[in-house]
Design brief:
This protein is of the alpha/beta class. It contains five helices and ten strands, in the order H-E-H-E-H-E-E-H-E-E-E-E-H-E-E. It has a single domain, classed as Rossmann fold, CATH 3.40.50. Strands 3-2-1-4-5-10-9 form a seven-stranded mixed beta sheet, sandwiched between helices. A three-stranded antiparallel beta sheet has the order 6-7-8, with no helix packed on it. The chain is globular, with a radius of gyration of 16 Å. The two termini are 23 Å apart.
Length: 214
């Protein structure tokens, strides 16, 4: 099984920012990233909508605190003090206004210098629904009965335009599933003063806004 080690380059940055707090993982699925974070010594509070996925995640990461709930519901009380949020392939299922509201909720949860590490469907993700399906709203399709949003670089930037500082933005092709999947990998921080752009963060991998052409 391909483990999809996308978090590995960011573990040192996560360790610097997380402090003594747990990490909040939104949309943990079967717990692959949860297990990676747990193995790195972090406490994890995770949520996912699928009961089956939550059962698998609890087996894969037995020390994590995992809840079965919608991401738009109030976050678990144990996530009231969080410095790092992980949201891998989980923020792209909602109408645009609800997606903006969820991103704003994450922003408000985080303290200054808090991190959000996320991945989003790319508009080039044609194997998994970016074309050939009924359109609900721009770049938001009903894919085999499930709504999915697909992002351009401009729409990623629009989603995080208010307050966030983008540390890394790259379109990548990953091999987590049966066919190659195109995603946007985005690392963001809540600046000490959200209105002021500060210098590149300490010890982070080099800031990137490359676009993959493969």
């Amino acid at each position: 099984m391909y483990i999809d080690p996308w978090l590995e380059p960011w573990l040192s940055l996560i360790a610097k920012r997380v402090g003594s707090q747990a990490i909040l993982e939104l949309g943990c699925g079967s717990g692959l990233d949860t297990a990676t974070l747990e193995a790195a010594g972090h406490r994890v509070v995770a949520v996912d909508l699928s009961p089956g996925a939550v059962t698998k995640a609890r087996k894969r990461a037995p020390y994590a605190e995992i809840y079965c709930q919608d991401l738009r519901a109030p976050f678990p009380p144990s996530a009231s003090r969080i410095n790092v949020v992980i949201a891998s392939l989980s923020l792209h299922y909602f109408p645009w206004d609800e997606t903006l509201a969820l991103v704003r909720k994450i922003f408000e949860l985080l303290p200054s210098s808090g991190l959000l590490l996320c991945r989003l469907n790319s508009m080039n993700d044609h194997h998994y629904g970016a074309s050939g399906h009924p359109e609900i709203e721009p770049n938001y399709y009903l894919v085999d009965g499930e709504p999915k949003r697909f992002f351009s670089k401009a729409s990623v930037q629009a989603l995080f335009a208010t307050g966030w500082r983008i540390l890394h933005l790259e379109e990548r092709v990953v091999h987590r599933y049966a066919k190659p999947k195109s995603v946007w990998e985005v690392i963001l921080e809540k600046p000490p003063n959200p209105a002021v752009e500060s210098d590149a963060c300490e010890s982070a991998p080099r800031v990137s806004q490359r676009t993959c052409t493969s």
